[in-house]
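Notes from the 1:1 (GR / supervisor)

We went over the backlog. Supervisor wanted to see one worked example end to end before approving the batch request, so GR pasted a single chain during the call. The sequence is below; no edits were made to it. Supervisor asked that the structure be written out right there so they could see what the output format looks like.
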Amino acid sequence: MRLYESIILSTLLYSAELCPLTTTLSKQLEAVHHRWQRNILGVSWKDEVTNKEVRARTRQQCTTNTVSERRLRWLGRLIRMDNQLISQQALYWEVPGFKRGPDRPRTNWRGVVSKDLRRMGLVWKEAEAATLNR
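Structure output shown during the call:
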């Protein structure tokens, strides 16, 4: 990957809580992050050091976990916002009468967050109650 692609992917990391990441993008983001970690440690891919070991040496977690954590933190902020704010209204807004075709539904932010919550063993209502209770 070239410098231009690295810059784009690093920008994705810092705005990842706001947009749903596809599997392809998250893999590319993970690859760039590993490349940066290897560069910092001075480890070449020829040294046959696994990514898991590189993460252990740098004491960093996977970027997918970092992105998921940021997404859930943003969800907490959204739920605690005032109902008058557009961001809070957009969280629960659905287009009336809109129905997609028979294709697979497009990945959206709320679906990705629901998947993150399921991975943690939570349901949307439990997450709302937990964030309001802090």
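Supervisor's comment: The chain has a mean pLDDT of 80.
Batch request approved.
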